[in-house]
Amino acid sequence: MQSLVIPATGLVYRTLLGTGGIGSGTFFAVNGNHTFGREESRSGRFLDRNDYCKLHIVAHYVRTLLGPPFTAAPIGKVGDDAAGRQLLAEMREAGLDLRHVVAETEEQTLTCICVVYPDGSGGNLTVDDSACARVTPEFVRKAAPALAAARNAAIALAVPEVPLPARAELLRLGTAHGAFRVASFTSEELADGANHLLLRNVDLLALNADEAAAVADLATTRDTVDTVAAAVARLRALAPCADLSVTAGRQGSWTWDGRDLHHLPAHEVDAIGTAGAGDAHLSGILAGLAAGLCLHEAHALGSLTAAAAVTSPHTINKAVDRTYLARLAETLKAPLPARVRALLETRA
User: Fold this and answer.
1) What is the largest CA-CA distance in the chain?
2) What pTM did the predictor assign?
3) 131-170 burial string, b = 16+ CB within 10 Å, else e?
4) Which of 9, 89, 243, 308 has the fewest CB within 10 Å, making it most exposed?
């Protein structure tokens, strides 16, 4: 395959520095679509799938879609164990800059169990005492010189699965050094109004439908369109300058750029595994923004990246690059903005 390289002069952002989960997991398919009960025992089976955590997924796809000279540098910790060593090898193979990733002795690598229902939906059970739990604000501050060196050409990404104070510190550093600040939060974190203050240090907030309901202070997700509209209204009050991305599986996705709310339907593909689709969606958006697309154009790239991601059983589809996405768009006859098509076809 011919390498597709974007010149450094064509990038708005040349570096991603992010903190969040780095770990692996196991997929367990349960029998029956009804939600797991508190005292229920249910049969199922383990699936032959590789699971990865949020920071790894996003950093992988952004680096793969942009290639050199873009740098994707995770900030985090793994255990000095077999799982940790395997993850480091895979991230290194993908071209990630690992100078801010540490293998901790006497700590276990973050592990989760992904529960999958027959209809393809599911959720995660994640350990909270792994090496990722040892990521502190002090540890994150060690990456400050890299942010300073990047000046205004950095993306500061703060995603779950490391403690909230560490993520808040990265957003603070991003603010101090003029980075484009991107964050996501769990529904539980967003239900705590005290955490809404962090949104003032966010330029792009990436949520799923349940998290959008939490930020809007809704008891349930109700109608998804209403939920997204309520989340936009709430975000305008909490952080007037922040943009928003919301994913909702088969219902598609939305972006809000401070003026317009934009919806894209989900691409119709043969989905094998939907875990990690939201992270792939965010990856496509960030790659598009780094390459100079506006948010709604980048949204189209995010939607296409998510579609490509779910055609793999693993939460990282390692076949995905810009050539892969261009071919998928052609197969789907997907109507892409002209600048997205040009990006997918960019050659050295």
Assistant:
1) 58
2) 0.90
3) bbbbbeeebbbebbebbeebeebbbbbbbbbbbeebbbbb
4) 9
CA–CA distance, 88 with 340 (Å, rounded to integer): 31
Residue whose structure tokens are 């989960």: 21
Task: For Cα atoms 5, 6, 7, give the angle at the middle one, nearest 5 degrees.
Answer: 110
Q: Which of 206-220, 289-303, 308-322 has the lowest mean pLDDT?
A: 206-220
Give the span between the Cα atoms of 149 and 305, in whole angstroms: 30
Q: Could you tell me where the DSSP H helices lie in 72-128?
A: 82-93
Mean pLDDT (the chain, rounded): 90
Question: What 8-state DSSP symbol labels residue 267?
Answer: P
Residue entry with tokens 């240090």:
201
Nearest residue to 146 via CA among 138, 137, 133, 155: 155
- Report the 10 Å Cβ neighbour count for 64: 24
3-state secondary structure 2-48: CCCCCCHHHCCCCEEEEECCCEEEEEEEECCCCCCCCCCCCCEEEEE
Domain residue spans of the chain: 13-19+55-73+131-183+267-344
Structure tokens at 220: 């349930």
Half-sphere exposure of 302 (CA within 13 A, CB side): 33
